[in-house]
Amino acid sequence: MDQLHWKVVKITPETDQASTIFLQKLAFEPISYQAGQFLTFLFPHHGELLRRSYSFSSAPGIDPTISITVKRVTNGTISRHLLDHLKPGDELHSLMPAGRFTLNNNVSGACQVFLFAAGSGITPIFSLLKKLLYEKPKILVVLVYQNRDERDIIFKDQLEELNKKHSDRLTWINLLSRPVNQHQVPWKLTNLIVEKMVGTHQYPGKKLFFYLCGPPSFMRMIQFTLRWMGFEEEQIKKEFFTVEHIPSPPLMSDRNAKQITLHRHGETHQFTVAYPTNILQAALNNHIPIPFSCRAGRCSTCVAKCLSGSIKMSVNEVLTDTDLRNGLVLTCVGFAETDVELEI
Which of 48, 189, 284, 307 is the 20 to 30 A CA-CA neighbour of 162? Predict the structure, then answer.
């Protein structure tokens, strides 16, 4: 399986509970990634190999050093290790950059982008924000960032600087549910506030796109409101940081074994799979290396293209209708309805 080898060059605290980790790739080949993507890191732990995905806070072509930003998770083994023990000079291993929380090709010219973030959900949003401001000069951007109080604002100084430098194109709406400053009005994003914000800041005649990252309930609320307002699913993208549960297999009447033909890196693998085993697990059972991370249909690390046959997915939180029409599937929640040919 393709892996990247990194050295930590610097660690910068962002808040009491979050830090940015700057990385140098230990190889001569340049690394290619897109704003909004993530790295899945591999951590040996008690005989197991734990996987944790962290979004780039850097933006390619803009920031000279690649960085990720990590926030402490309650009882989070890896986040506590990174924040409490990681130091410059330490080395990390990851999979190749992955993720589809990236700027659509349609996000160009005369359009407007709304970025909704809560807490550490600002990390991939921050990467996208820099890409938009520095490389897409005609696009107007509205950033809505929800936190509990002023001490929780990740990238606070950098956001203030961007807000001043690009005041003609960037509107930053800073929402605090329990501000320390008594003169600050407390605000928590709701359906009504989302509707009013989009209506107030929408620029007439411009195509709108929405990028959401935060707790699942936060994103569901915004997505529901935007869909109710008439915006299309293709205009909305979400990035999940947490997996609430691993989805159950879908109901299928044909549970006979199916033949899978899988192409990856010029090699062809063949194996069988029978319900209720998904395609990813069947490949791993046969020692065929497919990249994966969340196992819940939310991160797209395991995405493949279906060249022939039929696959039923139990859940899909990341692929758009266009992706589906182009044959893309998520192998971690994909179950073969027929013999299938795939390309990673």
Answer: 189
In a domain, 10, yes or no: yes
List all residues 6 or more positions away from 230 whose beta carbon is below 8 Å from its beta carbon. none
Classify residue 174: in a domain, yes or no: yes
Domain that holds residue 305: 258-343
pLDDT tens figures, 254-303: 999 999 999 998 999 999 999 999 999 999 999 998 899 888 888 888 99
- How is residue 66 written in tokens? 């690649």
Tokens of 106: 């349609």
Cis peptide leading into residue 215 (ω within 30°) = no
248, two tokens: 């159950």
User: Exposure string (b/e) for 125-143, b if CB count within 10 Å is 16 or more?
Assistant: bbbbbbbbbeebeebbbbb
Does a structural domain hold residue 248? no
- How many whole angstroms separate alpha carbon 179 and alpha carbon 160? 17
Closest CA to 38 of 323, 242, 299: 299
